[in-house]
Design brief:
Elements (H helix, E strand, L loop, with lengths): L5 E4 L11 E9 L10 E7 L10 E4 L3 E3 L2
Antiparallel strand pairs: 1-2, 1-5, 2-3, 3-4
Length: about 70
Amino acid sequence: MKIGDLVKITRASLGIPEGSMGLIVNTRKSDPNAYGESYFIHEIDMCGIPKRQGGNRRYLERDLVVVE
């Protein structure tokens, strides 16, 4: 996954139903946890969700699927 990819959300959250679509606008790698594992955190600009309802949302890579 990279910036500019269109993705589908696979995990529902407050105000964002499962299956919603969005565009990756930023990506960063988390600091290692206690087990030394790092994760990619993607910032998603949600399609059809007004900015006043939270703006961009952050999701882990495991909660996203790239739309081809």
